[in-house]
Amino acid sequence: MNLPRNKEELYLFVFSKRNIHINYLIKILGNFHEAEEVLGDFYLNLISKKADKFDFSRAEKWEGWTYSCLYKSCLDYLKSKKEKQKRRECSSIHLEEFFSIQDEDELIKREEIKNLKRNLNQLEEPYQQMLIMYYYQNQSYREIANKLGIPIGTVKSRIYVAKKNLKEKIEV
Fold first, then answer.
1. d(CA 109, CA 111)
2. Does any domain span residue 123?
3. Mean pLDDT score, 28-44
4. Which has the least CB within 10 A, 29, 57, 91, 133?
5. 3 state SS of 143
6. What is the CATH number of the domain that holds 152?
């Protein structure tokens, strides 16, 4: 088969190498079904997006381009798979924790901590950083100032403002 000169020829060219691509993906993923899934997604992306980016003046490099795209598709798939697994584990852990809590006060305390963390994450970066370093990492004003290269007065001021902002967020 000649080198592709347009999108249609590129599709035929790439699809004709399906078995080679499947074997390549199986070597990376170690699983035929996952390899098929990634290859299917790759073909869909090829048809909808990637073919528009292909430089037909450099068609002799199609194979490297294809393998590069396949490899990136594998990485995306593995990342997505890992994130799904984490979500499943987290949700099952939260359910186990919820049902294992006997003491209502402990449940209330956990909800308050979760609320505090959520509000802390909504603070602007310098204020959030100050509270974490001071309260969670138990660093002194001087240690924080030295690490960040700022005056102690600035550290004290930012911690004061951060506490004030956090208190306002919690009370709302």
1. 5
2. yes
3. 86
4. 57
5. helix
6. 1.10.10.10
Most confident of 16-20, 32-36, 82-86: 32-36
Share of the chain above pLDDT 90, in %: 8
- Per DSSP, the residues of 54-91 read --GGGGGGHHHHHHHHHHHHHHHHHHHHHHHHHHHHHH
Range of the domain at 50: 7-89
- Cα angle 154-157-161, degrees, rounded to a multiple of 5: 135
How many domains does one find in the chain?
Answer: 2
Say what the pTM is: 0.43
Give the integer Cα–Cα distance in Å for 101 and 105.
Answer: 10
- Single out the residue of 70, 56, 58, 61 nearest to residue 20, CA to CA: 70
Return the ∠ at Cα 165 (arms to 159 and 169), rounded to 5°: 140
d(CA 14, CA 51): 11
Q: What is the DSSP letter of 122?
A: T
Report if residue 2 sits inside a domain: no
- Give the least confident one: 6-10, 108-112, 133-137: 6-10
Question: What length does the chain have?
Answer: 172
